[in-house]
């Protein structure tokens, strides 16, 4: 059961091969047995999961089952879940029990899914390795000495290890796509505004987006259809209809125009990764696509622009953690200033503090124009690069990451960690959608192919990803970790 | 552009983030390198380019000025460190 995709599980449940209760019990047992070595969960909500499974089985018995009824999944611990701890991987919110559900959580509950719990993550979504969590690092199921990627490392590892068939993650600079690549699974960052951010703890409000992480593009399409859509409670969510994202999965790729950005195949790209990506592109040519080189001239300015804009927005968003209304409060504060300063110093980890400090500095008087305003101007140029490219081609392709998963502890220097995001980060600045699919392996560590499309082109992206998965089997590989002896 | 410890202390104060001297020294190097990376942006010609604050270049949606939320103070205050009579307690501010 733990090897099956959401789509396969849905069929099996419908066919009565097993109940949602049996499936949930089996996965909870797997989590209990295996997650000690992975650390992918922060909170396992077994009681609620079993209750939801029973409710789903009852609904199915009444003939009221929908496409997601009774399907298990996990939620990154950044989504508010009512009456369940929502920690964002931080000491600051270790004691925070959310009083409400995030929009996406509501939608998934209404659809009858069964959440097994909240997954580990880099603190407040700031990181690319899941080594920045108050709850300890997450391991990569493909190699326990490697990182799973971040910030949605727990979600990625849990899916890769078959603890859950799917999970929700969030992506601000690559935090769905990069861990999906490192863990050999499929992860989609939708267009900015496609999915409501209500109840999703904010890191950088103009960049954050929730998205599905699963074994296949088909599963991602199923989940995206459930979570996408307008929400009055998120003023940046777009009033645009939600298609059935599975409807076009089967479309032929004959005539598809693929662009390979030359800046994504230069210095810093591991030759073995490049080789896997070029093989993947050949597969697309065999499916009838044509390939041409394009240019995204501002690619190398995306990292500095992001590391000005995101910390600036974070410094504003994280100012709400003041020890007054919720979250960590220091003991015996002398006065209000001491309350704020000590609560925040105690509650936040190093990387979060670094980003708050940089963000505060670049927004402060005398520096605002040179840094923040300049970065926003460069942001417009970065977005324009993509819009220009999509005049010539339908989709862009390249590696999701410059290397496969690196070892735990390998990137101690913040800036070298930031350079990990080179292929993913511009996508958030531009607001376009992107998906990473498994496309190879190097020394046992997975490689991800990233596919990018214009704003709101998720149906096409999922179709392009799905067709690759019809003729390759990278997405069907499983790590040795957690393999059951039949 | 190199940062001095006092730049870091100033930012820490603005952000109400407690930072002792050892911490401040530790962050000076990291933050200097991040800013040096950010300085690369100066090389880009942005004459006449409007800043992009929202990736879809959208403006804030407005709604009618009507009360739509209900009072859920008790529920939300369950997470508060210290409350009394529905008010959040903090150290004395006004003498």
Brief digest:
The complex is a heterodimer of chains A (486) and B (95). Chain A is α/β, with parallel strands linked by helices. Chain A contains 15 helices and eleven strands.
CATH top-level class of the domain at 6-253 in chain A: Alpha Beta
- Number of H/I helices of chain B: 3
CATH architectural type of the domain at 1-43 in chain B: Orthogonal Bundle
What is the residue-mean pLDDT of chain B, rounded to a whole number?
A: 92
CATH architecture annotation name of the domain at 6-253 in chain A: Alpha-Beta Complex
Quick one: CATH superfamily of the domain at 6-253 in chain A?
Amidase signature (AS) domain
- CATH-wise, what's the superfamily of the domain at 1-43 in chain B? Glu-tRNAGln amidotransferase C subunit, N-terminal domain
Instruction: List low-pLDDT spans of chain A.
Output: none
The mean pLDDT of chain A is 97
Task: Explain what the structure shows.
Chain B: Heterotrimer of A, B and C subunits. Chain B: This is Aspartyl/glutamyl-tRNA(Asn/Gln) amidotransferase subunit C. Chain B: It is an enzyme of class 6 (ligase). The complex is a heterodimer of chains A (486) and B (95). Chain A has 486 residues and is α/β, with parallel strands linked by helices. Chain A has a domain at 6-253: Alpha-Beta Complex (Amidase signature (AS) enzymes), CATH 3.90.1300. Chain A has 15 helices and 11 strands. An 11-stranded mixed β-sheet of chain A has the order 1-3-2-4-6-5-10-11-9-7-8, sandwiched between helices. In chain A, helix 5 packs parallel to helix 6 (177-183) and helix 9 (302-317) crosses helix 12. The radius of gyration of chain A is 21 Å and the shape is globular. Chain A starts with 5 loop residues before the first helix and ends in a 15-residue tail after the last helix. The mean pLDDT of chain A is 97. Chain B has a two-stranded antiparallel sheet. Chain B has 95 residues and is mainly α. In chain B, 35% of the residues lie in helices and 4% in strands. At the A-B interface, helix 9, helix 10, helix 11, helix 12 and helix 13 of A face helix 1 and helix 2 of B.
């Amino acid at each position: 059961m733990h090897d099956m995709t959401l789509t396969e599980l849905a069929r099996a449940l419908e066919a009565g091969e097993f109940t949602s209760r049996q499936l949930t019990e089996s996965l909870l047992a797997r989590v209990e047995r295996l997650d000690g070595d992975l650390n992918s969960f922060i909170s396992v909500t077994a009681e609620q999961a079993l209750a939801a499974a029973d409710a789903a089985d009852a609904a199915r018995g009444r003939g009221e089952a929908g496409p997601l009824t009774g399907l298990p999944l996990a939620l990154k611990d950044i989504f508010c879940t009512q009456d369940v701890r929502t920690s964002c991987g931080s000491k600051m919110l270790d004691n925070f029990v959310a009083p409400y559900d995030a929009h996406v959580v509501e939608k998934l509950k209404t659809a009858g899914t069964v959440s097994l719990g909240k997954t580990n993550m880099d603190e407040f979504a700031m990181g690319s390795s899941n080594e920045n969590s108050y709850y300890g690092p997450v391991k990569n199921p493909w190699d326990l000495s490697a990182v799973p990627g971040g910030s949605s490392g727990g979600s990625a590892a849990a899916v890769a290890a078959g603890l859950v068939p799917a999970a929700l993650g969030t992506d601000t600079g690559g935090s769905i796509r990069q861990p999906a690549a490192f863990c050999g699974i499929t992860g989609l960052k939708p267009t900015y505004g496609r999915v409501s951010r209500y109840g999703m703890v904010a890191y950088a409000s103009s960049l954050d987006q929730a998205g599905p992480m699963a074994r296949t593009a088909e599963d991602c399409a199923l989940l995206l259809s459930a979570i996408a859509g307008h929400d009055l409670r998120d003023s940046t969510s777009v009033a645009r209809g939600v298609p059935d994202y599975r409807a076009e999965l089967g479309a032929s790729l004959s005539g598809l125009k693929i662009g390979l950005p030359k800046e994504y195949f230069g210095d810093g790209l591991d030759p073995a990764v490049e080789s896997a990506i070029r093989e993947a592109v050949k597969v697309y040519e065999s499916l009838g696509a044509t390939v041409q080189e394009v240019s995204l001239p501002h690619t190398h300015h995306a990292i500095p622009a992001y590391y000005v804009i995101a910390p600036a927005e974070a410094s504003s968003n994280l100012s709400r953690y003041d020890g007054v209304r919720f979250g960590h409060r220091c003991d015996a504060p002398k006065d209000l200033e001491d309350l704020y300063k000590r609560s925040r110093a105690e509650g936040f980890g190093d990387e979060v503090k670094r980003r708050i400090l940089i963000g505060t500095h670049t927004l402060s008087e005398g520096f605002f124009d040179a840094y923040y305003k300049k970065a926003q101007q460069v942001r417009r140029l970065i977005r324009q690069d993509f819009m220009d490219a999509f005049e010539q081609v339908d989709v862009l392709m390249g590696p999701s990451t410059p290397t496969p998963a690196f070892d735990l502890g390998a990137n101690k220097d913040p800036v070298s960690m930031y350079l990990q995001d080179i292929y993913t980060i511009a996508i958030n600045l531009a607001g376009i959608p992107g998906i990473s699919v498994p496309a190879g392996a190097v020394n046992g560590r997975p490689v991800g192919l990233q596919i990018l499309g214009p704003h709101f082109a998720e149906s096409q992206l999922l179709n392009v990803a799905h067709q690759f998965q019809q003729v390759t089997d990278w997405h069907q590989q499983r790590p040795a970790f957690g393999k059951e002896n039949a | 552009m190199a940062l001095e410890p006092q730049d870091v202390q100033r930012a820490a104060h603005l952000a109400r983030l407690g930072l002792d001297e050892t911490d401040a020294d530790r962050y000076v190097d990291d933050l200097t390198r991040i800013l040096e990376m950010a300085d690369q942006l100066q090389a880009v010609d942005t004459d006449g380019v409007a800043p992009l604050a929202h990736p879809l270049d959208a403006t804030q949606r407005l709604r009618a000025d009507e009360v739509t939320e209900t009072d859920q103070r008790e529920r939300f205050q369950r997470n508060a460190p210290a409350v009394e009579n529905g008010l959040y307690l903090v150290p004395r501010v006004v003498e």
